[in-house]
Structure formats: C-alpha cells, structure tokens
Amino acid sequence: MTTTADRSGQFQLGDRTVQRTGYGAMQLAGPHVMGPPADRDAAVAVLRRAVELGVDHIDTSDYYGPHVTNEVIREALHPYPENLTIVTKIGARRTPEGGWPEALEADELRQAVHDNLDHLGLDVLDVVNLRMPGFAEPVERSVAGPMETMAALQAEGLVRHIGISNVSTSMLAEAQEVAPVVCVQNHYNLVHRDDDAMIDALAREGIAYVPIFPLGGFTPLQSHALQEVARTLETTPMEVALAWLLARSPNVLLIPGTSSVAHLEANLEAAARVLGPVELDQLDRIGG
C-alpha cells in the first residue's frame, strides 16, 4: 500500500506547482476556532516564518474565527508572494455558540466566496474547497447543486480551481460530472485509512489528496509501533505520522497547523524525514 515516492517534493495543484507540505491556518483563530488569537503578533510571525521556510500553499477559510484567520493572513503576507497558493473552504458558517451548520445554498456559497476575497484582499481565489456536511466523515448526499454554483463562480473568474471536502467515492464522482476537481480533503491518517482506494485512484488522475486530522484530530495518535519507530529515528511520533503520510502516495499534500514557530519548524522537518522499508512495514501494520 505505502509507496516509496518522494516524501516532500512538489505536486501540480491545478495550474500551480506547490511543495507537498503546506500550512493549515485554522489554529490561528482563538479557542474552538472562534474569535481572535491570544497573541496576534505570534500568529503573524508563524505565517511569515512559514513563507520564509519555503511554504508555498496555505489552507484557510473565512469561517475560521469567523473572518479572523483570513484577516491575519492578509496582515502577515499581503501583498502575497507570486508563488503563494491560498486554498480556502466554503460550505459552512459559524454560529455565536461555535457551531458549524451547513451553508450550501447558492446565495450562501456565492457570499462566502466574496467574503474570502474581501478578507484576504484578492480578486480571485486560487482553490476553493466545497465542504460537505458531517464531522470529519461524509454524509451521503447529492453534491450536484452546490457544485453547479461552484462551476458558475469559476466561470465568472472568481475561483480558479475547485476542490471538495468530506465526500465519499460516489459523491466525488458526482462532483466530477459537474466540474473538474483538483483536490479532495477527507479524514485520513495512519490509523484511519478508509480512503486508501480513493487516494490511489486520485493519484492516477493527478488529483491531490489532503488529509484532514492527519495526526488523529482532537485525540492524538497513540500506538506502540509508532512510538517505537519514533524512538528508533530519534524524533517524535507526530513527525513520523506526517512522514508516513508523505510516503503514502505522491499526491498526498499536508497542511499541518500550529500557532507556534517551533512547532511549525518541526512539522516541516518531518517532510524531509526518510522512512526505510522496515519502518514503513511497521507503520503500515498499525492500520492493517
């Protein structure tokens, strides 16, 4: 299952070539992804350091905060480097209580695109992911209506490329009947491998796969084998888990998030870590 493909390297995301390890900006908002960060200067510093270290794609959404994360990105990086690809996500909204209800009607999707453009300070969004409902797991339903709106926004020149998030194989196929998809964001990690077949199929089509909860989500990955490999390589289990994802397939892109410069640098070091056949075999058996 696991390939020995280049663990870092680059991948063609639509018309943009990006490094396979990017940065996920969700943690730049306040607790529970609501409100401002505790230290806005530190959030700005993380973004600037990421770009200094060669990160050339950032994953965000205007419903992080809401609006906060995109405003911090704009403060830190605008005017943006020419090689920076910003990937955003629409399809949900935030309630004052911190909920994430769906927002998939045509007018809601259209407003979300304009909100992202305004808060990021852009005229066109590089990649917009359509987030379908469900907490980390797909809820089987039609995607045709929302995808038709996405295709219209693309035709109007507001969106360059379309991605989709939280979808099953059948939902992805339906989406692709409406418009080309350049990336899929789904729940996947070392122990949650329901999308193995999807990853391989997308790789054959040249479509990126971006794992959500790559380190296990709110409960960090726990495994004796993971601990053993990390100990052998004199690193952390989380760095090994990220390196395994990069070794999994050449179309896997990572967007680990953090509000710490030190943690950012550790995540990027994981992209350069080489896992040998013995380590890969040990790790593959965790989810086997």
| Cα gyration radius (Å) | 18 Å
- Give the overall shape: globular
From the 3D coordinates, which CATH architecture would you assign? Alpha-Beta Barrel
Can you list the strand order of the major beta sheet? 3-4-5-6-7-8-9
Please outline the major beta sheet.
Answer: 7 strands, parallel
CATH class: Alpha Beta
Number of strand segments: 9
Q: Structural class from helices and strands?
A: alpha/beta
Question: How many individual helices?
Answer: 10
> Any idea what the CATH superfamily is called?
NADP-dependent oxidoreductase domain
- As residue ranges, the low-confidence spans are 1-7
CATH topology: TIM Barrel
Strand content: 5-15%
Measured distance between first and last alpha carbons: 10 Å
Number of domains: 1
**Averaged pLDDT:** 92
Helix content percent band: 25-40%
Summarize the structure.
This protein is of the alpha/beta class and 288 residues long. The chain has helices at 40-52, 68-77, 106-120, 144-155, 169-178, 196-205, 224-233, 237-248, 261-271, 277-284, and strands at 10-13, 16-19, 23-24, 57-59, 85-90, 125-131, 159-165, 183-187, 208-212.
Protein architecture, described:
The chain has 288 residues and is α/β, with parallel strands linked by helices. The protein has a single domain (10-284), classed as Alpha-Beta Barrel (TIM Barrel), CATH 3.20.20. Helices cover 39% and strands 15% of the residues. It has ten helices and nine strands. It has helices spanning 40-52, 68-77, 106-120, 144-155, 169-178, 196-205, 224-233, 237-248, 261-271, 277-284; strands spanning 10-13, 16-19, 23-24, 57-59, 85-90, 125-131, 159-165, 183-187, 208-212. Strands 3-4-5-6-7-8-9 form a seven-stranded parallel β-sheet. The longest helix is centred in the middle third of the chain and has 15 residues, at 106-120. It is globular and about 55 Å long. The chain starts with 9 loop residues before the first strand and ends with a helix. Residues 1-7 have low confidence and may be disordered.
